[in-house]
Amino acid sequence: MKTQIENIFPEKNDLPDNIDLPFPINQTQYLINGELHEWAGPCEEVYSPVYIEEKGSAGNVIGSYPLMDEETSLEALKAAKEAYNNGQGEWPLMTIKERIECFRNFTLKMKEQRDIVVKLLMWEIGKSLADSEKEFDRTVEYINDTIDALKDLDRNSSRPVIKQGIIAQIRRAPLGVVLCMGPFNYPLNETFTTLIPAMIMGNTVVFKPPKLGVLLHSPLLEAFKESFPKGVVNTIYGEGQKVVAPIMQSGEVNVLAFIGSCNVADILKKQHPQPHKLKSVLGLEAKNPAIILEDANLENTVKECITGSLSYNGQRCTALKIIFVHENIVEEFIEKFTAEVEKLVIGMPWDKNVAITPLPEPNKSEQLTELVTDAIEKGAKLCNPSGGIYNKSFFFPAVLSDVNSSMKIYHVEQFGPIVPIVSYSDIQEPLDYVVQSNYGQQASIFGKESKELGILIDTLVNQVCRVNINSQCQRGPDIFPFTGRKDSAEGTLSVSDALRVFSIRTLVALKENDFNKSIFTDITQNKESDFLSTDFIL
Q1: 71-94 pLDDT, tens digit each
Q2: Are 162 and 511 a contacting pair, CB within 8 Å?
Q3: Is residue 58 scored above 50 in pLDDT?
Q4: 533 CB burial (10 A radius; 0-12, 13-18, 19+)
């Protein structure tokens, strides 16, 4: 395995014909106020986690993107603000049916870019071909599901409510200008799970792609430009302090939609001068535990824990990041688990059946090595022979046993291929871990005895927002609520919940008398208001 890892990166001549791109891709365009502008200022080079041997050890430059300045970022904010125009702009005043039609046009244009976006997912963040294709297709599906959910929401609001002598029409209205920032691990899908519902509910958006996974959005700029009115979506690029801070400090942002770390979220929120004006929709960190009971089916448990902890190299907020195993089965579990880890296919993102690929974050292998070293120095054991062997951006999964609270890996979110295993004798030990943790997204329980599972369920649902029985933690299906407690999230993101989180319930009310009934009838029958309307979208 060590030899295989030492020779993990391909030479130029070994690249398959169907995955290569016309490198470098130097992005100079950005979208503001419905126009694609050319950037003539400084640019940031984009390095791929995939090293091409003939290019040397400095990395593989695959392109660049604009390092915009404060002036340009404030132009993007101005465009979004003017497009919203205090709710009087073309986009917020559009009917839902008209907004849906804009998104149908966008989806058709987006599909035309599938091939290049998928390739860029592989090259920019090291995601496997299968997972890259899945991310693109799932995003298209998410847009279609959002359209269907919005139709249902509008249908339920299409009839008036009459209570206590008051006639009311209750609908949802947009919130204003949204600053949208997504994560590098799902730079398309998770970014769009905030961007799409924010826009379709009538808000206007300033959108900053993640620092890793930025180029893959460039093929979609034309689709955004051609599908939506000017100023509805505007893009910014560069260092957060230069392009994001001025936008937040302006006080003109109504919603912060951010998926990333708690520290960055805290900085962004504190920059806003009017905290009560700002609504935050945040997807943050997690340290999701697996709790394996003594009677667990080990064959299924190992399978689920392998996928749960190491899918996309463990670079998922929903990944299993610590595993608690009952002391009576811990040795057997470790033996079976490490055997399966050593079988995982390693290689480049386009390799067949690949499971472990290069890591996109700079110096990530060294950071992971520090966590492994710290744990071993404090009494942990490295269980698998290949664990922790790395070459540049590639790091083979390290399985650690005898992990305890004195070790960094017990507490921090590793966001990479390290699997810490903790042996327990009393079920209260893993429960205390969950209670004391700063995070509260999900947990997985593996076992058979229904009474014990039932007790654990009733405890854990008061600490985390999803309890998975005999399966890994995960986000989907997208119709399920996705959120977290404590430092893991603010707001709920499912297809339907996201529509609600980016809007607010608003109503028009009239006292129930003949005069007002006549007004209500005239307005609805003559279609004089889009809000006060009984139209029904099929």
Answers
A1: 999 999 999 999 999 999 999 999
A2: no
A3: no
A4: middle
Whether residue 378 sits in one domain with residue 315: yes
pLDDT band at 21 (very low <50, low <70, confident <90, very high): confident
For residue 366, the Cα-to-chain-centroid distance in whole angstroms is 25
User: Residue 527: inside a domain, yes or no?
Assistant: no
Of the candidate ranges 57-66, 168-177, 265-274, 391-400, the one whose mean pLDDT is the lowest = 57-66
Q: Are residues 327 and 410 in the same domain?
A: yes
413 lies in the same domain as 461: yes
Note if the pTM is more than 0.90. yes
Does residue 278 sit in the same domain as residue 236?
Answer: yes
**Distance in angstroms (rounded) separating the CA atoms of residues 173 and 503:** 5
Rg (CA), the chain: 25
Tokens of 131: 């997972």
Examine residue 357 and state whether it is found in any structural domain, yes or no: yes
pLDDT of residue 54: 67
By residue range, what is the domain housing residue 109?
68-283
- Residues near 7 by beta carbon (within 8 Å), at least 6 away in sequence: none
Burial 446-471 (b: 16+ CB within 10 A, else e): bbeeeeebeebeebbeebbbbbbeeb
Do 307 and 265 belong together in one domain?
A: no
Strands (E), 154-199: 161-163, 166-174, 177-181
- The residue among 250, 266, 283 that closes a domain is 283
Domain check: are 344 and 242 in the same one?
Answer: no
Chain centroid to CA 299: how far?
Answer: 30
Cis, bond preceding 24 (omega within 30 deg of 0): yes
